[in-house]
Amino acid sequence: MKSEAMTEEAASSARQGAPEIADAGQPSAEHVISVADVTKRYGSKKEVQVTAVDTVSLAVSRGEFVVITGRSGSGKTTLLNLISGLTTPTAGHVVLDGVELWSLSDRQRSRLRNEHIGFVFQFPSLVPSLNVLENVMLPRAFGGNHVGDDVESRARMLLSTVGLEEKAAAHPRQLSAGQQQRVVLARSLVNRPTIILADEPSSNLDETTEQEIMELFERVHETTGVTILMVTHTSQLISWGTRSVRMAAGRIIGDEPVAQARSTQD
């Protein structure tokens, strides 16, 4: 099958010469994410500098569902990118599962992201030339320690979980926006990540579809125990999580557990 050949070839290439990450598979006893005094500034010293994240510290325990809210420009997406290692901090430390991100090489950081983090972005970012099943399988092409794991069977199981098993052979252009986001959620789980990072995953959806996507996130959280960090500007989504973090002007201005039960939105 074409997808299997593509996947195996890419996987072989990714594994060649890939360095080991000694600590990546060893879960920390308490916090799966630890951010300490992290700052991110844009602009050189000769230019006007913009501080997107300002001396932020955040510790997230294994299995939490943290919803980070704030207005546009509050720094919430930048913080998510710092946690994932996609953005380099100006100062401070980011530790995932006991591993200091910026003690790793670029290759090691990429490998850690692929094996331990699932991403769900605002826009689906599916590969148009691949069908739904191939898109879900794609992260496995870039490595992963899953000896004996049948990636196609897992991908089909995940598609069943998100209610799209009958769309396995379809291409992204044949799906609605909500269906595409379901595929992205399935793809984010294919490598059995420790963490899912979601950046405005429902902002491009209508209210009904948003409800369906959030129900899927809740189900994934409850059944797998994966740690979820979700960024959103919609305060109504806070009640889906277990913890609420609020940001403004690059700083955390609120951090509390979500104590109230979710009420049904009409």
Question: What does this entry show, briefly?
Answer:
The strands form 2 sheets. A 6-stranded mixed beta sheet has the order 6-7-8-3-9-10. 31% of the residues lie in helices and 24% in strands. The protein has helices spanning 2-15, 76-84, 106-116, 132-137, 151-161, 177-189, 207-224, and strands at 31-42, 50-61, 65-69, 91-96, 99-100, 117-120, 195-199, 227-232, 243-248, 251-257.
Protein architecture, described:
The chain is α/β, with parallel strands linked by helices. The chain has seven helices and ten strands. The chain has a six-stranded mixed sheet. The protein has a four-stranded antiparallel sheet with strand order 2-1-4-5, covered by helices on one side. Helix 7 links the parallel strand 7 (195-199) and strand 8 (227-232). Helix 5 packs across helix 6.
The neighbouring-strand order within the major sheet is: 6-7-8-3-9-10
Average per-residue pLDDT, rounded, comes to 85
Shape: globular
Taking all Cα atoms into account, the compactness measure Rg is 19 Å
Largest sheet: 6 strands, mixed
Overall structural class, as computed from helix and strand content, comes to alpha/beta
Q: Tell me the span between the first and last alpha carbons.
A: 46 Å
Share of helix among residues? 25-40%
Taken in chain order, the helices and strands follow as HEEEHEEHEHHHEHEEE
Contiguous helical run count = 7
Give the DSSP E fraction (strand runs of 2 or more residues): 15-25%
Query: How many strands?
Result: 10
Query: Regions with pLDDT < 50 over 5+ consecutive residues?
Result: 1-28, 261-266
